[in-house]
Amino acid sequence: MARLADYFVLVGYDPGKRGSGDGQGQILQRFPEKDWEDNPFPQGIELFCQPSGWQLFTERNPPTFFVAVLTDINSERHYCACFTFWEAVESAQPQSHPRNGEGQEEEEEEEKEPSSPVQPAQLFAPKSLVLVSRLDHADVFRNSLGLIYTIYVDGLSVSLENVIGNLLTCTIPITGGAQRTISLGAGDRQVIQTPINDSLPVSSCSVALLFRQLGITNVLYLFCAALTEHKILFLSSSYQRLTDACRALLALMFPLKYSFTYVPILPAQLLEVLSTPTPFIIGVHSIFQSETQELLDVVIADLDGGTVNVPECVHISLLPEPLLQQTREALSMVLDPELEVADLAFPPSTISASSLKMQDKEIRAVFLRLFAQLLQGYRWCLHIIRIHPEPVIRFHKAAFLGQRGLTEDDFLTKVLEGMAFAGFVTERGAPYRSIDLFDELVAYEVKRMRAEEGNKQKILRHIKELAEKLYKNENPYPAVTMHKVQKPTEGCHLRLHQKPFPRLDEGTVQWIIDQATAKLQTAPPAVKAEKKCMVPSGPPIAAIMERNGNALANSARRLEVVRNCISYVFENKMLEAKKLFPAVLRAMKGRAARHCLTQELNLHVQQNRAVLDHQQFDFIIRMMNCCLQDCTAMDEHGIAAALLPLVTAFCRKLSPGITQFAYSCVQEHVVWTNIQFWEAMFYCDVQNHIRALYLDNNEENHADEESTEGPQEARSALEIASEQLRLWPTMSREKQQELIQKEESTVFSQAIHYANRMSYLLLPLDTSKNRLLRSSGLGDVESVSNSFVTNSIAGSVAESYDTESGFEDAESSDVANYVVRFINRFVDKVCTESGVTNEHLKGLHVMIPDIVQMHIETLDAVHRESKRLPPIQKPKLLRPNLLVGEECVMEGLRVYLMPDGREEAAGGNIGGPPLLPAEGAIFLTTYRIIFKGTPTDPLVGEQVVIRSFPIASLTKEKKINIQAQVDQFIQEGLQLRSCTFQLLKIAFDEEVASDSAEVFRKHLHKLRYPQHVRGTFAFTVGQSPKQAMQPKAKEKNPSLRTLSKNLVKNAKKTIGRQYVTRKKYTPPTWEQRSSQHFPEDNEDEISVSEEMDRSTLTPTTTIKPSDKMTINHLVERACCRDYQRLGLGTLSSSLTRSKNEPFRISTVNRMYAICRSYPGLLIVPQSIQDNTIQRISRCYRQNRFPVVCWRNSRTKAVLLRSGGLHGKGVVGLFKSQNAPTAGPSQTDSTSLEQEKYLQAVINSMPHYADAGGRNTLSGFTSAHMSSSGKWGSIRASGRVSSYALNMEIGSRLAGKDLLGAQHNGTPSEPSFLRQHRASLYIIGDKSQLKGVKPDPLQHWEVVPIEVFDVRQVKASFKKLMKACVPGCPSTDPSVAYLRSLEESEWLSQIHKILQISVLVVELLDTGSSVLVSLEDGWDITTQVVSLVQLLSDPYYRTLEGFRLLVEKEWLSFGHRFSHRGAQTLAGQSSGFAPIFLQFLDCVHQIHLQFPMEFEFSQYYLKFLSYHYISNRFRTFLLDSDYERIELGLLYEEKGERKSQQVYKSIWDYIDRLNKKAPVFFNYMYAPEDGEVLRPYSNISNLKVWDYYTEETLSEGPSYDWELAQGQPEHVEEADRQDTGAPQTKRKIIWPCYDNRGRVEPDAISKLLEELHNLEMELGQVPERWKDTWDKVKASQRTEARPEGSRTPSSLLMSSGLSHHRRSLGVYLQESGVGSTLNLSLDSDTSSTSTPSSGKQGGRRSTSTLYSQFQMSESENRSYEGSLYKKGAFMKPWKPRWFVLDKTKHQLRYYDSRMDTECKGVIDLAEVESITPGTPTMGAPKTVDEKAFFDLKTTKRVYNFCAQDVQLAQQWIDRIQSCLSDA
Fold first, then answer.
1. Whether pTM exceeds 0.85
2. pLDDT value for 1558
């Protein structure tokens, strides 16, 4: 029961205090005069009676009534019901400023009325009757005060004292839905209904009114503003409405209670309260509107105008969607039901809104539902940390937000942080209490609300149900309205002579009150039985939030990946783990994956697998860090909480006794510095322990019961608590004490535990560093958790530290103090909240510094040890394989290889994981720069990436800064570009000091540009002591001069002798073969004494080599062999040669005196004397006079080359002869000699005009007669020409107009107009030949053409490199590559070269000779001349011939390789000019157009392109033969046969390689004899060479063959070891990674390889691949033979492509009679199957070195006979037919004498010795022991046995002699 009213007060106007304008009120009387003990009298009531100030008025106003609310110091609300009426004032006071009050609503008048001196008006003062109560029964108060006023006004005969006494003594029940009728003793009766449940607010119809005044949106704004603690101000001119609005707002906030300033009516004198910093809800009369204008952070609601004004600086967080929308819809359904049907054609007539009171409840029902949805599941986030003596409960805000998925939501976050919610937790958190509507709603109806979402009818039904309950709660007895209260008569307030309100007799009233209190004390106390029960928790949040089901389904695969990765880590399958790792890190963005991680790790801890090795530890740490980095400081998903026990479990042993735990590596996360996180964790653990405490007790008691019930669901802590609270009153005192003590010690032990944990995570590993933990997380506890500060200013205030905590100086103090303070603060807070005793708390404070200190000491040891660990995550540096003799100059520097503009490797245009960036090391060896490492992308982590190039090919090195993705800072790096089209873009790892990088650059520079050629790798390679056997002694630097002197001396000495060439070298020439018969020994006139040969086999002293450097070597030079093949003459000293040969070999330059850059032997016309030559040479640049380099065997036209002419020579030569010569006679004579020289060349040819000219060719068979060539397509020959070549060639070429009428870039076949055809065309540079007139009398013609110079080639090449290997990805992918390719003009230069070459071929083929005389005669001239020979002569398209061509035209004729390749320091400035590369590119273009004409493959060309600049071989060093001889290079080759490790010559290397494997061989090779090729040269026909663009990252460039071998096998093994991954047979071939040729070999190579492997398995000596290939082709020939004449073979497929004329496999050879399929590629067999055509000896073979020139059978078989041979291991002896072939330098054997197929070959070059042998098991019995002999080769020992001793001796002698010849 409670008093209806506590005090009755009479307040009047105070005339005495009329100072400053406004008057004041004074309390005239109050009852009771003594304060009640339980309820002191509120101060300042007089202010609230006239909130807008006490004034006098000029007329009487009707009485007014309103209820003001005062809040006392205990935050209890007092309702002051004020009833005001007016009384006349006795004497008029003109000084006062009267106000006009009109009607009930007072409005202030701006102009004050002037006090008129005329008759002063009658003035009225207000007087108020006030009831002060703690109950809010406004109607009862209005009625009661009205009754008192009526008694006074109407003068009823009732004692006022009685009525007031009764009013003050009336008591009513507070709740329970009771009904009480009261009477004040004036014949009145009132019924008071109390609400059923007092926790629900009473609103009558105030809420509905509020919505009517402001509208839905505005009220929602106010509602959210109130919940998020903003300041709210209501304005209205009605006090009653202000009160109602405030009451309505509070009613909407239920179940939260507003706990800040609440003043529904604020008096004028207190207006400054509005500038308080705390939130409030205040009502102010509209007359003060102007004074509220300057409030910046207050939301102002104008009830009369219906507006809500939110200032700019205030941000109101609204409800989260979809709740906001749903709430709005529900409200509009309640408030405006017509809206739904407004559009209907026939709207139902019945729809109308409920009554105002009902509507009020419906609106509140909407908000009740809203709160139930907002707070659903809140009970699952309560932590109960003490049960006894009274429950202490904390709410885990972060977990709640996280589970609801609303972490980002401003509104809910602010609400949960607010005071209202804190009150809610305290009030409603208790597990055992009475429950109300909200509890039921949130526990039982959540599911229903979820189900009804979106169904308006159902929602409305639910709202109405709730509204009914709310209405019932307020009006439990709706029928009763039996009020009977007297009202004053109408207009009684206007009576003129109203007596003032009488003074009441205090005594009477006091007496009535006293009697009532005495009666109450005797009455028994009314005990209200509270119905307490366990509060239902409702479904857990997880069950509610199932709407994200699909998200979970998607992530199942991710979780699988996370689990796999973790199990891989623990099973130590690091490679697998590494592959999955990025996926795991990506998955960690999802919450499920993070939870999964913590669970998995937890399982492993439970299985005692917490001690890890370094790599595992590293993985686990990285996962944990990744997991934590996405957690906020709040840790709303409990990830950090779940990891907390794990970080103190996982560890690794650093050294004996020192263990590093995971926590030392995961400290960098803000969550650890958030004190709220620690509190939540602490409370959570405490709750678990306390639950365990009571569970244990229960289980002892109930063990027997439970077993019968079956497994009981685990009870939650709250359930246990409520059970305990129910039992509490029944327990004995001791029991209670015991429980309290147990709980307290539980909390205390947890506090110690947490002090430890916090020190683990807060103390950094390196405690010496003053690491400041992030300041934001460390604001002190108050400002973070119980922020009393309003959100509007929180920005500025909340961040600042409270000063007492001494936090400003945290920065200056060391880490330890700081951590101690942090932990102390935490401990203080949690212990006081959870009621730990003071002694315990003090003990804790003493312990904490010790804990921290101890931990620091252990950390120091750990830190020391962990620094010694090598950083794990970096892969170990892989050592590159080196060549024999290649040595490391600098050990690997750790670098990252960054992707450049080629995107394949970076996963660009073909996709796939990026191989680059890769992490590894850069090595500098004497030969190469090598990067070797592994991709940083773990999906390809086990691949190895190698990129390397020879140092000699480095063209540009620049410093760059690179942002490596691996660690995000800029690193210094280098970009190295090489002319083998490699780019190394490297970023040095941070561990590489910048000076090491500098040292690297210096070394690189030194190696790139050695002082002298001697410094290059080809020379230094063998100098290490390991290969001391090399004949290097001679390099003890004899000065160049002495060398050359010796050379000259010896040359003179030996020039008269006769020489024998090595058998291997001199092939008979074509003519000789056809015309003369040779002696068997094949000895030419030029022979070399044998002892000379012997001397070269032994390493000699310094001077000796120069003895060797004599003519015999010159003769052996490739040129000489070739000249003989072409029939261009022999040495002039030979007497047997007749003079009728047109050309001779001149030794005029043998001392290199005439021309340094020419070879020693030259072909000149027979008729020209040596001394003439000397004079002629002066006219030409560099003395390079015209010499013959090739002769067309059919037309006898010759090709000459020379340097350009000097000016004066030109003048004399080409001016018409009668013109006077300006120069001295010498010029004259030389120019005449020049003419003579050219004339001699012309004379050497069969005469062009001679009708019988063909007869000179009579020695040639018809096979050579056809002039048909190939025009890049199969065309009939002899088409009618489209133009005559006479005068036009020059002009056309000069005008770049060679294309003529043809569309394909080849000139049409010229068949010349005979009378105009010149015998000799001189192709010269247009710029030199200005002003030259053609001279009809002479037989030569000048063709001036424009060519590019070396500078342009350099520039073009630079651009080409940038196009093919760009430094960084281009911005515009569609155009960049092709455009930059075009701008480089590389292809147009190739086009030009090919064009000129085709022209020259054409001229030669039609019988005119050509002299190419461009620039200095060593760049473009060489390119053109070589190409012409390649196109015209099929021999040069074989491996052997191409070698010869390069040796002859490029090496002997002095192309300046060293200079153009910038191989030494001297050449550094001139830069790299790829003249030879350009030539090889041209060959590649021709190869593409005629794939069947070349014996060598494209790879061969790439191999040369790579190695001619690599300096691995000496072949391409130096600028001319002269320089090579000076260095003693040229003739070492013989002496070095024995040392196989290092090949000095690239040709030897190619030979050896070609024997081993068919890499250089072109299987499509099927030449047509005598074929002249005429390729298209249009740019559209040219292709970019893939040499420029492809790369093999798996092994680096594949041109160093030894390095590339043996790789595939071990890759497979690696695959096998890995059993975890599924095995697959699929091979992925990556364009930029794999060596496609080897990973996916072509069919023939594959078969050959398999065959080889089979033979190896069977233990046979594997056959050479070449022999196998030849056999295959031969057998195919025999199969195809029957198909015979003209019909093409079935194997022959016609190909649509113009240049693939015939398919691979069988080639038809057209000949005069029938068609013979001749596939023989071996000379022996070829002689037995001579084709029917008149050609000599069938096909040319390519199998061995000199089989180019077929001979009769007898020549090929120097000696033959039958021998027994012992087979390989465990095989019997067999008789075989052996053939010793001196020419081929081999011993072949056959099954029988008749057999044509050779069974095996023993290369005599490999034979080391022949020794008498002994019979072994299984040998022929009858044979003499001495008939046995053994042949020892480098590979194995062969055992032979002859018929008798003599035969054996004969064989031994023959083989010996062959060897000695060699």
1. no
2. 86
